[in-house]
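SEVERITY: medium
COMPONENT: batch folding queue
REPORTER: lab tech (J.R.)

DESCRIPTION
The queue accepted two submissions in a row. Attaching both inputs and their returned structure tokens so the on-call engineer can compare them side by side.

ATTACHMENT 1
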Amino acid sequence: MNLNKTARLILIIMVIVFAFFKIYSVYKKNNPSHSQSSDPFNRNTSHLILTKHALCRMQCREITESEIKEIVNDGNINYGKSEVNDARGPKYAMEGYSHEHQHLRIVVAPENDGLVVVTCIDLDKEWPCPSCN
């Protein structure tokens, strides 16, 4: 009799835990970590414009275009490293961890025809990039 109560209790706890995770996953899907509508620029990465400097940094720091898109889409804006009032136009420093576990900062400048990737930085590792200026 005591074993039945224990088994029922374990089953109830498992159902509650499963329900919690299901509700949480639906919530996260419908409420992303950043509100795209409140962002100061469109995060659409369908037309990225990679500067020569950014391409050089990507190569020497082993950062892929896929990682760039990931951070631009899902990263947080670091306003302390952004230049939102620059006379040439705003630049935003996007930060986050890529699927390859690199802690990255991607600096982008919104333009009419897309997002210009100004540079990319690995925040955890110092890479030698002698030819990138």
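ATTACHMENT 2
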Amino acid sequence: MKKTKKTIKKPVKKAIKKPVKKVQEDGKTVNIFLSGVGGQGTILASNILAEVFFKAGYDIKKSEVHGMAQRGGDVTTHFRFGKKVYSPLIKYGDVDFLLSFEFLEALRYINWIKPTGKILINKQEIYPPAVNLGMAQYPGGVEEIFKKFFKENVYVINGQEIARNLGNVQAANVVLIGAFSNFFPEVKEEQWIEAIKGLLAPKLHDLNVRAFTEGRKAL
């Protein structure tokens, strides 16, 4: 009887998957950068954003930097929302949306914006101390500079004028939030209004709801 030679099968090594490095961001994180001058209400604006997107079910992170705000220093906020956000800080050149309350404060951060970024600027010039002392010149043509690089993604509105027509120029920040809300059609108007009411005293509700509505129509 002929012996059959047994073939011993070598065990097949399964490919070991290398542990996937947790990426810092999930690809769906939206980066919003706010810039302005102390006293313009940028902090309230960022708080409204936080309230809206948190209640819309997003993970949010924000970081505020206050200059010499009482002397008209710059105030900036990094604001991020998404499925999961791991850091409050936006990387240089990674801003999706710039909301700026003043021309010069917009120009300071132009290099932070993605080529596809959208920009909303308040039509206001606030001269810093160096300009008032004659040590520097306020830059001209800021709107044109932005449009040169970002084309139709640049929007400029006069928040002060709209707020003044409503009876209180201090509501300009909420006018800007109203205009800015147009960038996020997935969030209902009622959600923005609810956030505004939740952050302000009842006596300020009527003015600021009207400011939001007029800003929303201005864009």
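NOTES FROM REPORTER
Residues 1-26 have pLDDT under 50 and may be disordered.
No errors were logged for either attachment.
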